[in-house]
Amino acid sequence: MVHIKKVVIQGFKSYKELLDLEPFSKGSNVIVGRNGSGKSNFFFAIFSRIFALMRGRPCFMALEYTLYTKELQSTNETLRRLDTDRQEESSRAKEEYQNALLVHKALKAKERELKDAEIEMRRLNKEKSVIEEERKELLKQKAKLELELEEAESRAGTDQENQERLAKEAERLRKEIRTTTKKLDDLTPRYMAAVEAERDVNERIIDCERRVNDLYSKQGRSSRFTNKKERDAWIKKEIKLVDRTIEVQKQQIEALQDEINQIGAMREDEAKKGYSQVNKKALDQYVSFTEQYDDLLNKKKESDSGADRITELIQALDRKKDEAIERTFKGVAKHFAQVFSELVPDGKGVLVMQRSKDVQEVGRIAAYTGVAIKVAFTRGGETQHMQHLSGGQKSLVALALIFAIQRCDPAPFYLFDEIDSALDQSHRTAVAEMIKRQAEKAQFITTTFRPELVRSAKKHYGITFKNKISSIHAITEKKALAIIRASAEAEAGPLMPAEEEEEEEEETSKGKEPAASTTTTRDEGEEGEEEETQLGEGEGEGEGEEGAAPMEE
């Protein structure tokens, strides 16, 4: 069985001095120490080395590929949504531009109509003024003639001699009056027509102004103008902008038309050349081009066939992935129910696969959206989702899932850092017993502040922190329990101040830190084989850290 035999650490975080820890047990190992003593740093050293070695393995690469694929799908979906929004926005902007052009054309038409109406009104006003002057003159003339007639009639009564002459004069005046009256009668319809035309023109002007204001209201800009002068200035400015845009588009259309004409002229020239001189090699060229076409057609068919085969292969791989996921999930779900019933005898736990509603759209693998966990901690109780559980219950469920995965696909060793901190006593005891049973087939290295894991472990280690340096040594179970009790008593005050711990973390994170090395062993007979990996200097944190636990099989 592959297991961690010993760990060598120097210059990693708080482990500044060389640490060469004696062989670990193949079963259960427990590490105790006060807060801030360096238990987590010990695990970081091992984890960093494990992750560094796993990066080149297919399983780790497959996991990274799956995560990157998910992220890529999400990014592509976001890009598609943004592209759709951009196209909709572009269509909306184009539609608004077309509406603006239509409104602009309508405005120009109404302005032309308004200008024509104003010109017609000025002409009618002039004609009206002329007719009015002529009418006034005729009325004056009529009044004058009537006055002369009255004078003539009055003189006729007193002057018998001039009666006949006055009668003739009166007749003449009557004729002139009739003529003037007739002219007035003829002029009156024209005058009334001019008045009616003026009224129509005024109504047309009012209607045009109302429609122009309606158009401005539709554009939402009528409130911007306080008077007609501002409105006319804005209209002229907008007309210039639109005219400039139309002019640019006309130039582009003319340029494209010129190119089309040039291409057409070139084609005509080529056609004329073809008619002027017959190509004697046309038949040979036709045969050659036909062969090239057939060859390209065959290559296209081969490419299509290859693409079909690749598609079939991808579909087959997807089916295998789907089957593997289903098979793995069923195994993990089965073991989860068993493990949870062992940890909580009166409880029940189930795993539920969550799928997308539209499998065809997202694909078979992407159809799996997650796993839901439902548990009940009492007999006959209603199952609850994870989000409804307490912190300790969530920790227990997570441990049950880890143990279920371990039973489905066993790993050679497990590193647990204070997994029982949030559990109550009964659950801590159940977890300790399960680790003890699982330790027969795998190695467990755990840290704890509770006595249950200490009592079930085969080997015990204690971590001390002095002068900002961590050290770890093998201790007895009795000593480990004493450290647990001392830690519980000193829980109100940590071993070292928080400021000092932060200062230590800052100092150890600066510069380069030699990392750790471990020795892992695979049993072969009684002697077995062992190989030690000593790491060079590396960064103390992040991806550059190198911890422990290379495995040789």
Automatic annotation (TrEMBL):
What residue ranges carry the coiled-coil annotation? 107-183, 239-273
UniProt keyword Coiled coil present: yes
**Which positions fall inside the RecF/RecN/SMC N-terminal domain?**
3-47, 102-469
Q: What are the boundaries of the region Disordered?
A: 492-553
Q: Which Pfam families match?
A: SMC_N
Q: Where is the composition biased (Acidic residues)?
A: 498-507, 524-553
InterPro entries assigned to the protein according to its UniProt record, in alphabetical order? P-loop_NTPase, RecF/RecN/SMC_N
User: What UniProt keywords are attached to this protein's entry?
Assistant: Coiled coil
Would the keyword Calcium be found if you checked this record's keyword annotation?
A: no
Question: Could you identify this protein by its name?
Answer: RecF/RecN/SMC domain containing protein
